[in-house]
Structures are given as C-alpha cells and as structure tokens.
Design goal:
Blueprint: E1 3-4, H1 8-23, H2 29-45, H3 50-55, E2 60-61, H4 62-70, H5 83-99, E3 103-105, E4 122-125, H6 127-140, E5 144-145
Antiparallel strand pairs: 1-5, 2-4, 3-4
Helix pairs in contact: 1-2, 1-4, 2-5, 2-6
Length: 156
C-alpha cells in the first residue's frame, strides 16, 4: 500500500467529513462521548479555519456539531434514525463531559463575548480536558495511507 503525506489542513478536512458522517451513526452515550472528543480534537487542529470560526469562543459549540452532522453525506447503512435522538445523545454526552471535569459550560475566557441565546450550547475544555484531547490526538498522529483514515477508537 502506498503512503501519502497530507498537510495538516487536508487531514482536518478529511477527518471532519468522515467524522460528521459517523455522527449520523451515534446510538449510545459512549459513542456520542467519543464522537465529541474527536470533534473537539478537529476543532483544535484547525486554529484559523472554519472549525474555529463556527465554534465561536467555545471548544465545543453544539449548534456547529449538529450542523456538521445534519449536513453529512449519509453512509450506506444509515437507517434514518431521528435527528432528535442524535441531538439528545450529543447534548447528554456533553453534560457527561462536564460531570467528568473535561469541559465546563461557557466560553474559553472570562471576557469572551457570548451571543444571546447561546447559554447551554457551548463548552470549554478544562486543563484535564485539554490533556484528554491531546492524548486522543497522539493516538492519531501518523501518515495516512490511501485507504486509511481515522475510523475507529484508538486501542489502549
């Protein structure tokens, strides 16, 4: 199999496309939690691109996550589960991340601006959460081959 090198920007775009499609397949809280970890990692990998612009001043902005998932191409085995179920799982998983001390509700900084109506929709990484996301990233930092993209949880 031939290896190809991709720029960091290209890797982010490829991963976002696959990731958003996988978001359509989230059916459990564990899957939703892992999906959000991947999504946050992608956001941090894209410091000046669309992931940051659409995430506003949050590390995890649920309206952006939902938009990405809803606009993703449906995988062949997609069974058209309710968008409401996926939304609920992602919201519940976000709250689990809060309970674990990985994110906290609100923007990144004390002086950050928050738009009206955004309360409860955005979260920021704690110091523990930043380490959690970095650990995830270390498992995926590698050269991609033509037939290999981030498609499963890293092995322990």
């Amino acid at each position: 199999m031939r290896s190809i090198e991709l720029s960091p920007e290209a890797v982010v775009i490829w991963v976002i496309m696959l990731l958003a499609t996988r978001g359509l397949l989230v059916r459990t809280l564990d899957e939703a939690e892992f999906f959000l970890q991947e999504f946050i990692w992608c956001t941090l990998r894209d410091p000046s691109g669309p992931m940051q612009r659409h995430s506003l001043d949050y590390d995890l902005y649920l309206p952006w996550v939902h938009e990405e998932v809803r606009n993703a191409p449906s995988p062949p085995d997609y069974d058209a589960h309710s968008a409401v179920l996926i939304d609920r799982l992602l919201m519940d998983a976000s709250w689990i991340l809060v309970q674990k001390g990985l994110v906290r509700p609100g923007p990144r900084g004390v002086s950050s601006e928050v738009r009206a109506g955004d309360y409860g929709k955005g979260f920021s990484l704690t110091a523990t959460g930043m380490a959690w996301v970095k650990e995830y990233g270390k498992a995926y930092e590698h050269k991609l081959t033509e037939n290999e993209l981030v498609t499963s949880k890293p092995s322990a």
